[in-house]
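Database export, one record per block. Field names are fixed; values are copied verbatim from the stored entry.
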Amino acid sequence: MTTRPITAAVDGTTESLAALAWAGREAVRRDLALRVVHAWRWEPHEAITVDRDGQERWAREALAEAVRGVSERHPGLEVATDLVEGAPVDTLVGAAEHAETLVLGSRGHGAVVGFLLGSVGQQVIVGSPRPVVLVRAEDGPAGEAAGREVVVGQQGTPEDSAEVLRFAFETAAARGATLRAVRAWALPPLYAYSPGSLKLLDEAGGMEPYETKALAAALEPWRERFPDVPVVQHVEMGSAGQALLSVARRAQLMVVGRRARRTAVGARIGSVAHGVLHHAHCPVAVVPHK
């Protein structure tokens, strides 16, 4: 079986260099190779006298400089580079197909924690068949200190959340971190009540015990597969986004799922992923559901 690398996208910005540093650390933890991708396009402008070859040379030099830094920090890490001329979204989605994880930089809100998710980032998340991690310029090794948890949102059935939980458990195992699994619940609208559903709730002892059992059932196969990962079950009444953000301060990584959909006004990644990306202070991994 071919081993996929951790892939980082760089464009010379501070945010992309932070993403590259995060990807390098993750590749070392998982004993994987690192692939560094830079998408560029020649854009002639009357104020810039450099020709196409000159711009390509600049891009190649910037890529080499970025890789030099991560290679010096991790001398045993296998690093490959890929300079691609093309549209950023198409290039990065294509790179994600061959990656274990795609890591992108994203601008922070300055004094307010969270991300400013531009159109490229959102389109890549929507189109990527693999997990995408968003990293801000402020995210560094200090945020991965001992005691920080990997926090994952669990929704629906065990099958619905299998890929999200797989990624979260693998990440927690590689980091020696505690995994906090969060499941939110709300009172169903009156029309959702039925004799069958009421019977299930009665047997479970009420809504919160029912949701607690549902979370435990989703976690069970992964706890068996990763017995050394400490797990905290967190069940909270409210929206999923609110529940996740309520524990974000203790997180070194937040993991959420997404079912992307396209509308007349563009791609959408779902309210939970959108809310967490815009308000969490730590790196956020968005994992596509199968």
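Remark 1: The longest strand covers residues 251-258.
Remark 2: The mean pLDDT is 84.
End of record.
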